[in-house]
Amino acid sequence: MDSINIKKLAEALNLSTSTISRAFRDNSDINGATKERILTKAKELNYQPNHYASNLREQKSKTIAVIVPELANNYFSQAIHGIERVARENGYHILIYVTDDDYNKEVTFISHLHNGRADGIIMSVSGEANDHNYLNQFDAKRLPLVFFDRIYEDIETPRVITNDYKSSFQATEHLIEQGCKRIAYLVVNKSLSIGKTRMKGYLDALSKYDIDFDEQLIVDCSNSYEENSIIIKNALVDLKPDGVFTSVERLAFATYYACYDLEIAIPDDLKIISFSSLEIAPLLNPSLTTITQPAVEIGEEAAKLLFKILDHHQDKNCFSEVVLDSKMIIRNSTSNQPEKGKK
Fold this sequence. Notes:
11 helices
């Protein structure tokens, strides 16, 4: 049997192709009985509407681009899950782009997407050390853009963030309350807004408890596991901290490995707390105390902000900010009590 297309279906029903198209787009200006007749005939003839071609005619891709710095971090995987759920409910698909914290990749991706590949962008940025005003060069042509987690402060666009200052203050305060006096702060990029905000929480907590700030205890790490292993081992040996606060979960892993190699006991010799959405944090030995961000909810809220612009034709440059709270979950890596089975 020859494949049925919209023209043949229209001829079979003695209707126009535009009427057939409106029936499949759920337009309110089509008679209910006519719509039912079209759908019944389409099922009988096994007709499948070409939504892709329809989207092209409407100049819509029905696709959302999601740009993230990495996928290895469990936080971004969960956030993408939240974005995808909302996109699917709205009849959209998502495309995922990974910058590997490379600013040039970010610029390339954004430029590519403005050629019609997506209807909107949800992004966690790569870095602030570069000139990112390229986003303003698109002016009226700029796609609707929503930031989440890592943002550019001077780009006015909707964003979803967490209260990182409060969380970092609480994390540092928790280590101090557990008896730590030399607390190292491990960070990948302290020039990022999120890195600066978390560092300020760390510094203010030290100040509150009259603990002298030692600049050496702010340890600059990298995106390389090999480099971080060396950096962290050197920091533990040379600086001799009694507490470590890591800004991302992979640095917590690297610290665990370093402690194992250096025979440093956690939490007896060193207490560790980290930002992490890792579901296996309770299964680590010892279990990891975490500042856990509501990653899935962050993704959902970012997608909802984007669809408010897409569905209601709001100003795509309007500024709205959603701030969600993270949760500190205390486990054995910061405990003063010996674990069961240990003396």
